[in-house]
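Internal tracking record. Fields below are filled automatically when a chain is submitted to the structure queue. Please do not edit lines marked as system-generated. If the sequence contains nonstandard residues, flag them in the REMARKS field before resubmitting.
Queue: standard
Priority: normal
Entity type: single polypeptide chain
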Amino acid sequence: MASPDTFRILHGDLSRIVISWTLAIVSEGYTRAQLDKGDFDRDAKLVVDELLATAPFDDPGLNRLFVIAAVRVESERPGSEIKLLDPVPASSPFRTAFGAMYGRDSFEGKQIERALHGDSQLVKDKVQQFTDLATIENFLVIVNNDSTDGGLAHDGVGWFAKARSAWPKVAVHELGHQAFSLADEYAYRNSQSDPVRRLPTSPPPTEPVEPNITLDTNVATLKWVGLVTLPQTFVPGTVQAAACVRDHPLKPTDPEIPLNAVGAFEGAGYHDCGIFRPSRVCKMRDSAFPFCAVCQNAIRVKLGGYMLDQRKAEPPQKVGAWTHVLPFATRFAPGTLFYNSVLGNYALTDNFRFAILERRPDGSPLLVPGRPDIGVGNINAGWSTLAPFALGGVQHLFGHDFGSGRFAMWRLGGLGDTLIQTFFDTPGGTTSHVVIVTRDGAPHMIAYNMFTGDALMSRIDGNDAAPVDPVAMTWGAGITAVVPLELDGEPFVLTYRAFAGEVAIRKITASGFVMAFVRTAFWPTNITHVASTPKDGRPYVTRYAAGTGRMLIDHVRVNGTGLDFVCRVDPSPGPGAPSLFGIGAQVMGPFRSRNPGGLILFENLYLYRALSQELVEVFL
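SYSTEM-GENERATED OUTPUT FOLLOWS
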């Protein structure tokens, strides 16, 4: 009598399985004696260890999102007895749990000897019989055979044997197929006597759907154009000859094209010629190597959807007529500052009060229950940009007027419910964007002019004097959004140039900046607002298109080296004129809600729509 199936969690938190990236590792060809001896448990751990040591799965920010289970299913006979049969019978004679057999696929009418799989649907059923594992989405099966090599991604399940000494690397390769839709990057051959293979041209081939192989070698249209590191003259990076060859020589250069360079290299998708891969080596070509940059990016994009637990826009709330709405800590922290640039009025709000339908005459939620007079005032009309910052442990506000060039600073005074002006000046000049970043422990103002492309960084030493030690920078004209970011304690700035769809990330340094990332046509050209919206210590940015009402969230990579699309807010906040100040106005950002006891419970984001005078809170 077979022992009952069991499972245990090898990585992650079972209580978060519904919102996590999930993987079940399942036994095939392990007898009761082998299971009891711990053979499968040891093998499953080898797979997990290999996976978590492989980029990008080794990123702690990603692998904390994983839940990986080992599912023990007993076989009557050991997997070592599975042999290649020709022809392959309809059902396995080897009496294993899932009937795995070799030779179960063909290529060009010939049996693929190493094509190993069994009943994939039964694997899924065995895993999902457990209520706790009913939402598992990815499956790997270890076939307990260490004498005959084989593997295959079949019907949503990755299968592999243990014949190679580094067989856990094969497991990660098969996961690339099963979970991330990556193509094989090698040319098919059953033996060294197999002929070279050119991709047929009749009928004309179509572009592969997989993200890591292509027919295209034009850098401008290459599907991984944003990751290319080689110049156009080295794309493709292999020498193309009239006669198809098995191993294409590299285009000569000194030094030689690096193994991890990204361009286009001939030989992929089971063919030697006519189809291209991104890099010279990759785990999808040879499991001994890491994933190439293109495959890593595809994996990160797929995993991005698990970075946020849920994305939904709550019903909007009426909050009055304002031109600016921005996060601003009050004595009750966290809070929100509302400002009307036409009248000069401001209102400070405790974010908890949003849940209570008690409003001031201007529509803003109260800062103190029953006291509409507390937390309101006037800082004069006309400020086009407002930027909060901390100085000496006290919350401050920097204001700039685009038209006159004047600027001012205020500190939070009274009992933490009043803005008190500490400095005012009219130096002249035109600045379209002002943000504050913290560098070397001190706040620094960065002023950018979208018409000239010039930017100026100055340190704020006190609240009663102009910023000092200016550093001039050239960013180029036309930037429509400037967003400060903090990545691992270091200051960065993300910029968006609407007419080109260009996104750039600059690391701010003492001498100006170092470009960490820049891509043209990276985002659509209709984005009207971009904001930093961190969550659980991870950096995210939110982009919104007022014309379509679509809101999307991206994750910022380590050291600002790129962004990965995470998800779309669904349902969307909807279209509408977001502010009287139009594109780039300060009406979207992080929103930290709390309970009456002061505990911060939520890190969400908000969007204010001036036309309807509504504030939409989006739960992350």
